[in-house]
Amino acid sequence: MENKDSFAPWAVAVFLLAVLTVQSGAVFAKKLFELVGAEGATSMRLGFAAIILLVVFRPWRIDFKKGNIRNFLVYGLALGAMNFFFYKALKEIPIGIAVGIEFTGPLAVALFYSRRPIDFIWIALVILGLILLLPIGDEVNNVNFKGVLFALVAGFWWAIYIIFGRKVGKDYGLPIVSAGMIVGAILFAPIGIITEGANLFTPTILMYGLIVALLSSAIPFALELIAMTHIPSKTYGMLSSAEPAVGALFGIVFLGEHLFTIQWSGLAAIIIASIGATLTARGR
């Protein structure tokens, strides 16, 4: 029988496609913020994604007796919370900075699997990167502490999503992403509905919401779940290191969110730490 943790080269391409897709979705989400705020955009993203994945994967066929139902519920909670807090951060700070700070979540997962003396180097680089990204001094005037806090919370839930995503992906297969999205929507979509009300259901908002859901959730989460179950945590962490740079480039090209040299240095430190941590990690 094939080892589920074995490396599958095609899964790398699947994961990189997910990275490009989700950063495109972030660009559209920032446009949507101007109309319905971060809470409303989260509702649209989770709600539409849940409906799309419900139709595609028909989660009612899942045999939940095959795995741990608590793992599934934590996965759904993490999926919704990761979306909600990332959008709260994205409203306050540039995409590249938000992704860079949020990325401490999957980096923490990589470091968890490799507790060796060399890991202190990667931890030091992460701390340095975060310091360079913090809104301290006149060099960084496009970042505020509220956005940083939201991004850190999103990073925590991203780590939980990775850990439990691998568990439920192996237990239940690809359709579980649909059931997890439904749980996330049930928990977090009401927040935007309460704050924005009928404004969410105008034609323009619905169109933007559908685009954001496809690019940010429905497509990339399905792609990531496929990749997660075919590449080890070490490889996943190393590939994920591209996300802060891709996010920053998308912010520059599509939103004019130019970063300062000190911020690029911070992103570089986090990316180097991620690559180093995953290369030196020991699988479990």
Structure description:
- This protein starts with 8 loop residues before the first helix and ends in a 5-residue tail after the last helix.
- The protein is mainly alpha-helical.
- The radius of gyration is 18 Å and the shape is globular.
- Mean pLDDT is 87; it is low at 1-5.
- The chain has helices at residues 9-57, 69-92, 95-102, 104-112, 119-133, 145-172, 176-196, 203-228, 233-240, 242-255, 261-279.
- Helices cover 78% and strands 0% of the residues.
Summarize the structure.
With about 280 residues, the protein is mainly α.
Low-confidence runs of at least 5 consecutive residues: 1-5
How far is the first residue's CA from the last residue's CA?
19 Å
Structural class: mainly alpha
Helix proportion range? over 70%
Features of the shown structure:
mainly alpha; 284 residues; 78% helix; 0% strand
Secondary-structure map with pairings?
Blueprint: H1 9-57, H2 69-92, H3 95-102, H4 104-112, H5 119-133, H6 145-172, H7 176-196, H8 203-228, H9 233-240, H10 242-255, H11 261-279
